[in-house]
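Morning run. Coffee first, then this:
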Amino acid sequence: MGDGVRLGVAGHRVLSAGPAGGSPRAAGTSGRSRRLVDQTVGQTVGEPGSTDPRPAVVSVKGVDKRFEVRGGGRMTALEGIDLEIRPGEFISLIGPSGCGKSTLLRVIGDLTAPSAGTITVNGKSAHQARVDRDYGMVFQAPVLFDWRTVEANVSLPLELMGRGAAERKRRVREMLDLVELSGFLQHYPHQLSGGMQQRVAIARALAFEPQILLMDEPFGALDEMTRERMNSEVLRIWEQTGITVVFVTHSIPEAVFLSSRVVVMSARPGRITNIVEVDLPRPRNEESREAERYFELVTAVRESLRGRLPGSEGEEAQASAAASAARTMAEGAVG
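And here it is:
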């Protein structure tokens, strides 16, 4: 978001950074870490006075999620979730294990119902959005059918929708071209690497032209090098399609590299504690991972997860040391 636009969720604190080269800082801020401006944003997308007039494609308001547990008790997984997602955004959800990231994704996708609050997608209920096939979903496991070829796996949702053979064939070819697997139509899942299997899963999720792609830790089982390649692939696909993406991850570097905004969640019960706006230039590539701004943003997300916000005593020294340590670790991994 190199134009310096500041959009957030009403009631949430936003760690926001202007474009490299310097947008105006908040009064009284100084130094490297002060470029991460701590502010409370009272606007939501599409409200009067918002700098972005587009309505939110996904609007989550006051959502709680509770589960019954043995012995008659209840476990609160999510509490007081408010989130607005703009059309074409790439949003990552990150937080401690068990904080409800995946639960929030499932609530947005109507795979489980909220205990309280509302979710609207393109102005309609999450359930109606699912009925209308506004969503595509990709999970940590590719969930491909072993007895079906790559072509047949990608074609499956189109078959279930009753699309004709010619249309199915055309759309499958388009999607396999998009994920750069056009030479593997007649291969079976066991003949593909883990990264290739996930690309097939992405092609299948996009085959029926959804408006929103929900991704639940899709690269968590991959080795680091394959994961980085898949990050670049999913960004390429996102840029080509313009689809809205909501992405769950445990990886801070992955979240920063991919996202327009990183939504930081607390330990259970999961609440949104901060939103870090990522102003790395696009298109992003390997050089993006070596930029000083990248390391600053990784540090900002990490400090948010630890509950440390800009303005605390010793902030600048902590941020500088953390960014240097992150940079040193990255250089050591490459060497």
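The first strand starts at residue 13 and ends at 17. Good start to the day.
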